[in-house]
Amino acid sequence: MTDGDDHALAAELAGAAGRLLLDVRDEIGFADARVLKDTGDLRAHEYLMAALAERCPGDAVLSEEGRSSVAGKRAKDGDRAPTRNTATAARLTADRVWIVDPLDGTREFSEEGRRDWAVHVALWERDGNGGRLVAGAVALPAQGLTLRTDATGGAALVRVEPGEPDPVTAGPGSAQPREVPLHVPAPDAGKLRVAVSRTRPPEFVRQLADRLAERGSPSGGVDVELVPIGSAGAKISAVLLGEVDAYVHAGGQYEWDSAAPAAVALGAGAHASRVDGAPLKYNREDPRLPDILVCHPVSAAMLLSGIGDVSGALPD
Ligand SMILES: Nc1ncnc2c1ncn2[C@@H]1O[C@H](COP(=O)(O)O)[C@@H](OP(=O)(O)O)[C@H]1O
Ligand SMILES: [Mg+2]
């Protein structure tokens, strides 16, 4: 059974991995992006694998960096292969599975000054209906923020001031948590800021923007601005923080890219689904989950209908 501790644990681990990643940036610098990316990916992965093994022995783990295909990756000064994920057969029969992306927005992490990268920690639990996400946290270390689910079914925003104790992990007597409830804000009428990948914005989103802007379309003509941001977690956080109004993606992604941000988004009252409106499903044998729509519920019907109108342009 999930209890409040799982929400707190997700936030604690995402925040701690995030601080570790800030230290990796300080230690390695930005001269060699490949070394910085690989070291960040692997150190955050090893931290999360060890912490989950210690704190939740018996739970399964699916991490981007624990796949057999990344067995050859090495951190700076690292001399062993990454800790492997729970075997697929065991994961598919487990009651609880942590789905983690130790460093989402790896490219942005390696670019000096960029703040759009994240750590994702989500918990999936089996239920009578195929299972569901029950807890999640997205740390945005360079922004000093963690977005997390809470035990009431809602979500919260935790502000971590640089140089001060992390309110998520701080013990008794330390600064009080600066934590506020998180509710997805509604967009301004007639306008829609849509977050897209910085490096591979899907062409169909441009067509969607044109379709929504048409006066004769069901949307009645909306002024759409495409906003390039790195990291799925940072983009979904931007929706929840009111910096943009939607995130639309298709053409490729994996469960770890969206599990934690989707859990927080649903807790914050957002719409989160596949681009055809189907529910997002996690802990599948094949972890590919190639498309996603996150927005305020008031925009969902318009966006889904607009996506349907340009579905011929959707990537395979
Ligand atoms: N077409 C695609 N195929 C596979 N993964 C993709 C993808 N587009 C985006 N992603 C993944 O989704 C995350 C966000 O991407 P983007 O910043 O371009 O929006 C990145 O995760 P990682 O940084 O963890 O690799 C990226 O690898
Ligand atoms: Mg990712």
Automatic annotation (TrEMBL):
Gene3D superfamilies: 3.40.190.80, Fructose-1,6-Bisphosphatase, subunit A, domain 1 (3.30.540.10). Residues 63-85 are annotated as: Disordered. Its EC number is 3.1.3.25. It is an enzyme of class 3 (hydrolase). Keywords: Magnesium, Metal-binding. It comes from the Bacteria. It catalyses: a myo-inositol phosphate + H2O = myo-inositol + phosphate; adenosine 3',5'-bisphosphate + H2O = AMP + phosphate. The keyword tRNA processing does not apply. SUPFAM superfamilies: Carbohydrate phosphatase (SSF56655). This is inositol-phosphate phosphatase. It comes from Actinomadura monticuli.
